[in-house]
Design goal:
mainly beta; five-stranded mixed beta barrel; globular
Length: 162
């Protein structure tokens, strides 16, 4: 099967929305607007086209995105295209193509950013996790946010298949 990897650079159109699957896996979704501008060779007028993409990210990245970016931020999103289909309560069939993010970062073209490395989250105790993160030279700082008691459970809150 062909690889469907894409990279888009654009502005966040809505604050990331965090949800949790029934098994407690974090999922964040937000929109990105990507604009292209060019000069029409016939009229010498500037023209612009804007495309809108839905972006989905999972697990730790979802939590980091919700803490780090908001509406208006310029971001670089690298991921893969996936099509998702469902049926409405009225029996209408719906389908959407989304970018499932593998990596997201701030665009530094017109802004600066401060990066804080989160503590590693693993199967070892928190005392050694703090030491391991500090020993890596990247600093610590990130604090894990626990899932809220009331979790949103809707049909589109499926777990990532991979």
């Amino acid at each position: 099967m062909a690889d469907s990897t894409v990279t888009v650079v654009g502005n966040v159109t809505r604050d990331p929305e965090m949800r949790y699957t029934p098994s407690g896996v974090a999922k964040a979704s937000f929109g990105v607007a990507v604009s292209r501008r060019w000069q029409n060779r016939n009229t010498q007028e500037w023209e612009e086209q804007t495309s809108f993409f839905n972006v989905v990210c999972w697990r730790d990245m979802a939590e980091n995105v919700c803490e780090s970016i908001g509406k208006g931020a310029r971001v670089v999103v690298n991921g893969r295209l996936e099509q998702r289909s469902w049926e409405t309560e009225n029996g209408d069939k719906r389908s959407v193509v989304e970018i499932v993010a593998d990596d997201i970062g701030p665009s530094l073209r017109w802004a600066t950013a401060e990066v804080r490395r989160n503590e590693r989250r693993g199967s070892f105790d928190s005392g050694s996790a703090a030491g391991a993160a500090g020993a890596g030279g990247g600093g610590g700082g990130g604090e894990r946010v626990s899932a809220p008691a009331a979790r949103a459970e809707t049909a589109d809150d499926m777990e990532e298949p991979f």
